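Quick one:
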Amino acid sequence: MTSAPFPAGTILGYPRIGRRRELKRAVEAHWAGRIDETELERQAAAVRRATRERLAALGLGRTDSAIPESFSYYDQVLDAAVAVGALPARFADLRDVDGTIPLSAYFTAARGEGERAPLEMTKWFDTNYHYLVPEIGPETTFALSTDRFARQVAEARADGVTVRPVIVGPVTLLALAKATDAAPEGFDPLTRLDDLLPVYAELLASLRDAGAEWVQLDEPALVSESLPATPARLADAAAAAYRVLGEAPGRPAIVVAASYAQLSAEAWAALAAAPVEAIAIDLHRGALPPVADGLAGKTLVGGVIDGRNIWRGDLDAAWSRLDALRALGAAAVAAGTSTSLQHVPHDVDDEPHLDPRLASWLAFADEKVGQVVTLAAGLADGREAIAAELDAASAALADRRSAPGVRDGAVRTRAEALTPADYRRGPADEREAVQRETLGLPVLPTTTIGSFPQTGDIRRARARHASGEGSTEEYEGFLREEIRRVVRLQEDLDLDVLVHGEAERNDMVQYFAEHLDGFAVTVNGWVQSYGSRATRPSILWGDVSRPAPITVGWSTFAQSLTGKHVKGMLTGPVTILAWSFVRDDQPLGETADQVALALRDEIADLEAGGIRIVQVDEPALRELLPLKQAQQRSYLDWSVGSFRLATAAAAPGTQVHTHLCYSEFAVVIDAIAALDADVTSIEAARSRGEVIADIRTSGFSRGIGPGVYDIHSPRVPSVEEIAALLQRAVDELPLGQVWVNPDCGLKTRGYDETVASLRNLVAATRAIREQLAVHV
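Output:
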């Protein structure tokens, strides 16, 4: 087929929630019933138009397919699953009479409704973005079930912009899917590839008819060695898929994008030989691939601009990698980002409160677009045409290396003095005996993960204080009253181990970043986490230290209000790194140990204040696991080591908890055991307790709390539903190990649903305790 040339510079995707989170607000207003679907569609279209106009203004072409259409109401994997009709049977009655899947059904699949459980959610490769896991079985009927992708292409076309729609590719869609409940044991969704491809071909034709000249099919599964399917099997699937799609009539030109690491050798050869027009590869995390058969007619898009971090980086080195890519013999080379820019905020210029020197080292999404445009000009006109831009980036990099605070002698001296003994606690069985005697907890102790709902009153009080309205004394008085209320509520609910609710914390990482040296925080640096939820990752730019205690005052105040134990709540070193934009000028393990030493001091102060249970959350432990197996051992060594460094000095009678969510327990079970925490809580409710079997077979011997309440859905689980999950845990695990808790913190939920759910959690626990007493 003939097609328009691929643009000389492009990005693989762009932040989609809006510069001021306009889409988030519109979607949540729709969920709350404040606006109807028509108004939601209107506001979403405005967000898309603003994005296209911004990208054109930054230098991406309006008519050469350089602007990606990567919009999503909730999640790109759900978008693809809905497009091909791959929703499980429990949502079948939500389809329109013609078989299409309306937006209301899309949201129900994402969030659940009543007794209808949502799709499971987990992390997108090694990022903090959460995707919805498709459920596909032998009974799944694939059919084009929405025209939303085509309508967005036509919408752009009407505005004079030729966009490149971005869709999760068929191999990745199936590789990330789980089997439906109706599927036989051991069923592999990837076996449905031949049935899926005709629907993708139909989808591609519809995009061409709507005006798309290029389509981007994202296939990050082809870089991973951590999926159930082997790299060789994924490569075979890619060869089969793109042979069929490449030969499909009436399609746009295809660029296959493989982000987050280097393509496997087999996948690279398969794509090079496939009848597609372009391949986009990650050259930030991957090396230059070898020469391969089939490249002569293709465009290679070199992902040399880091789509994951916010540093301005070495633009001269990026240019050199692009220049070297030309030697592979492709028909053309284009400049690109390594991944979608959905992982970074919009614009450094939106951060007037950042130190100007620090700001000069940064590149958010808009600045990265500018870097791509610069490199594209160099490809067209030669290095000399962009020499000034390359030199400016190099000067900023040199300035960053020499700036005060980037290296702190005292911090480095302390880290260099560490010995293996600093990473070890006493024997776990001795600790357990002391804790059982001193803590006095019942069988199946109940607790929550940490945060309680962040109400409008809390957010308004925080905003007033930040703007200088009222005194610090008034604000802290408000927080103390909120803590009193949360403690009284937990006592009324009859939870066994309490928390103070974290009303003082805007975010579980940012709060610590605001109190540690070496960090900066943003005002508008929002990044989508999942659905309508966004976080503002902090910027870890220098050596880390703790000038003063951070959480001790709030935790000890809460403990003074009750005779029950109140957990001290800390965010662990790996999660602080994972959910921040971290300096890239030294190994992550060195930075993690600096954070761990600050937390070690905080734990000592909590113990001195009378806190006997301390939770150090590490929900991101699995998230950062490298996609390549050769790199995993080193990562697990330093990540586990940093947690142990933070907690090893705790007294035997201090019960150390940790929390992991969406972590695929079986993948990192040895690492979780090596953390040497006394109690681990973990997400399990949305997957209906699948993780419990992994816990049993692993022989995990510490306290474990498989979550029984899915806090990422507004549903209130019934007593019976919670009791069934808890019964499964009791049946399969030693009774003395089992704790009862939600999947995660309650910050994003409302109080009505939270109280109802926790009452059901406690009632279910009582029922199981009574049943156990009868049987014993």
